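Example 3.2
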Amino acid sequence: MGSFIIQRFNLSSNLIIPFLLITQCFVLGTIGHENNKPTAYEVLKDFDFPIGLLPKGVTGYDFDPSSGKFSAFLNGGCSFSLEGSYRLKYKNTIKGYLSKGKIASLEGVSVKLWFMWVNIVEISRRGDDLEFSVGIAGAGFPFGNFEECPQCGCGVNCNGIINLQQQVRKFGETPAVSSY
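Structure, written as tokens:
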């Protein structure tokens, strides 16, 4: 039936694809706003945090404004690398307590340090920096590093990976793997 519509109105696929993408973005944007409920990302922004602390694909969340208890839900576990050196892993559910500039008692997010996984237990905003604590140690990063939501599997720099995947699907080939 899709080809009938294209032939009937003499529309090219170049016009249909952008229309479908715009429609999909509109639908996804309105899902989080049912009953005027903000998205999980907007809740983070309300507490002075960037949306990039959560990966793309949050399917829902719970938030109790009186206690600050926050839970975000993913469709499955998620992992990716940041800045080519830090590997992050998210569980299906991420929990913590939100207050202005602080996420305390964080559960469900871990970072790989050298050869072991360590839970990130707190995130604090200090001016234009975010401080990540793993309990006895911590590290600071610029706020701007988290303005974009990472994507499971590839992080925030997915363009090369996505383009390669699209080319592979387009030509029906698998990419060559070589070792040096």
